[in-house]
UniProtKB/TrEMBL annotation:
Belongs to the cytochrome P450 family. One of its GO terms (molecular function) is heme binding. The keyword Metal-binding applies. Heme binds at residue 464. Gene3D superfamilies: Cytochrome P450. PANTHER family: CYTOCHROME P450 (PTHR24305), CYTOCHROME P450 12A4, MITOCHONDRIAL-RELATED (PTHR24305:SF166). Keywords: Heme, Iron, Metal-binding. It comes from the Eukaryota. The keyword Nucleotide-binding does not apply. This is Cytochrome P450. SUPFAM superfamilies: Cytochrome P450 (SSF48264).
Length: 517
């Protein structure tokens, strides 16, 4: 018996070895540079290392690869199954993948699609297809239905008053801490704020049954899906045993969403004007696209909830961590903001899109934050058929990681990348808006840096659906805070990143607020 098992294992190992040697050495990627080091998870399995309390290994790895000129435009790891994992480290390469590669092709379908592993994991987590894990036509109709409410024309009038109201609430929390002299952990404040905003906009009301999930704070999935069991192959991760960590909480979340959808539907029916929509759920229901199966809408709402809060909250926190260490920058921003918004108290309805548009320094601040702390550090993509990436042929069947973190910390593009320098994003006085030539051959200089695309929100067909919502929140909160307060970072607070799906501040961000005159 024992010898048969050993024989079987030996045969399996031989098959794996032949497969590995064949895939590795017949690949057009042969001879391409390999990352010098990196965790076993990345270089041997092509997987994201599970989060742990030590260093941010994933960021360090991506930055090192991005900063190494020899690994430009791509570098390659091979998993033990011989599948190439290709890191794309140049803007040209990333555009080839995300813009050209994801473009619709009449007969053959797009050259690349969402990364295979992330797709499976997300499918598992959300308990079915959704905007975040579907591909092809199944993704396209969802995008078509869900995008319009997130475009500025619908988004801003529906949501800016509520965002401004939420910003004002955060300011009063800061005022309490100002008076008792203690620092406040802003990542928690911003997580509540962004969670309130996305829920309000999804369902169009503040009166949701948060009791169904045991309180607003529990509107998170928990990270059971990052557990070891979720990563097990051969469908083991689909078993009830593997999902036991997060299935119960997902079901409670879905109960909450079913209830919230019913509330949104009823309030839309009660409206006089049924042709316009004040929330995402109303627009989605009216499209009729979910009539065949309401559970598909539940999955999409769950996806939007998760995509819509922590990315923006952590970006705000990193932004405040930089501002709090840079009083001169605060004063520079303050001058512009005070001129536009006037002295506090600023009523929520006095914050208008026109005023926010007059704050280019605020734009530069959030762009520099997203450069230095991109919420999503790489974009995983699966290659359907051979694709040319900045001159290199990447064979079908490979996985690609577009290395956003490495690109944005590349000193050839962003000199002195560790420095938080908002001037990178400020157009020179001679700049004429709309004068955007093709940027493909551009080499980046301080004069044209502001034209570098917003890769942190990713490019192409799958670009971030909530980009305008995130920017609305970022602008409103940064402007409101700087208009009222001076900030300093608690001296013991070390700012470090940790990746738990998105980049978060590992030790939180503890800020002292001091009211301006
Ligand atoms: C600073 C804030 C944010 C950043 C940096 C960000 C970044 C990104 C990135 C990089 C992706 C692509 C992920 C991938 O392809 O693997 C993405 C996709 C997406 N984001 Fe965001 N995001 C932010 C905020 C939001 C918000 C507020 C929402 C609101 C609902 C949202 C909804 C989505 C959705 C639905 C997708 C999938 C789009 C598709 O595949 O069609 N995001 N985002």
């Amino acid at each position: 018996m024992m010898s048969q098992v050993l024989k079987g294992l030996g045969a399996l190992a031989t098959v794996l070895l032949i497969n590995y040697v064949y895939r590795r050495f017949s690949s057009p990627l042969i001879g391409r540079p390999q990352p010098k080091r990196g965790s076993f998870w990345i270089t041997r399995l092509g997987l994201v290392p599970p989060p742990h309390d030590g260093d941010d290994m994933l960021s360090e790895f991506l930055i090192e690869v991005g900063q190494d000129q020899h690994q430009s435009p791509i570098s390659v790891c091979h998993s033990i199954f011989g599948t190439p994992l290709v890191l794309v480290n140049t803007l040209k390469g990333i555009k080839d993948v995300l813009i050209d590669g994801q473009a619709k092709h009449k007969t053959l379908g797009p050259r690349v699609q969402r990364g295979e592993m992330i797709r499976r994991i997300q499918n598992l987590v959300f308990g079915g297809p959704s905007i975040n894990n579907a591909v092809g036509d199944d993704w396209r109709w969802r995008r078509h239905v869900l995008l319009p409410p997130f475009q500025p024309r619908q988004l801003v009038p529906n949501l800016l008053p509520y965002v401004a109201e939420q910003a004002l609430e955060a300011m009063s929390l800061f005022a309490n801490h100002d008076s008792n002299g203690s620092p406040i952990e802003v990542d928690d404040v911003f997580t509540d704020l962004t969670m309130n905003v996305i829920n309000y906009y999804l369902y169009g009301t503040k009166d949701l049954n948060f009791g169904l999930v045991g309180g607003r704070k529990n509107l998170k999935l928990g990270l059971g899906f990052q557990s070891f069991e979720t990563w097990l192959p051969f469908g083991i991760n689909e078993t009830s045993w593997a999902q036991r960590g997060y299935r119960p909480s997902r079901e409670r979340l879905k109960d909450f969403i079913r209830d919230a959808l019913a509330i949104a539907e009823k309030s839309h029916q009660d409206r006089d004007d049924k042709k316009t929509y004040d929330c995402v759920a109303a627009a989605a229901l009216a499209s009729g696209k979910y009539d065949h199966d309401r559970e598909e809408l539940v999955n999409d709402m769950l996806s939007l909830t998760f995509a819509g809060y922590d990315t923006t909250a952590h970006t705000l926190s990193f932004c405040f961590s930089e501002l709090a260490r840079n009083p001169d920058l605060q004063d520079r921003l303050f001058e512009q903001i005070r001129q536009v918004l006037g002295p506090p108290p600023v009523a929520p309805d006095a914050i208008t899109p026109e005023k926010l548009a007059q704050l280019p320094l605020v734009t530069a601040v959030y762009r520099e934050t997203l450069r230095k702390y991109p919420a999503v550090v790489f974009i995983p993509v699966h290659v359907n058929r051979d694709t040319v990436v900045d001159g290199a042929v990447v064979p079908g069947g490979s996985e690609i990681w577009c290395n956003i973190r490495g690109l944005q910390m590349n000193p050839d593009i962003f000199p002195d990348p560790e420095k938080f320098n908002i001037d990178r994003w400020i157009p020179p006085a001679t700049f004429v808006p709309g004068d955007e030539n093709s940027q493909d051959d551009i080499s980046w200089t301080p004069e044209n840096q502001h034209r570098f695309p917003d890769v942190s929100f990713t490019l192409g067909q799958h670009s971030c659906l909530g980009k305008h919502l995130a920017i609305l929140e970022l602008r409103t909160v940064i402007a409101s805070a700087i208009n009222q307060y001076r900030m300093t970072l608690a001296p013991w607070n070390k700012i470090e990143t940790k990746i738990v799906l998105t980049t978060k501040p590992k030790n939180g961000v503890w800020v002292h607020f001091d009211k301006r005159e």
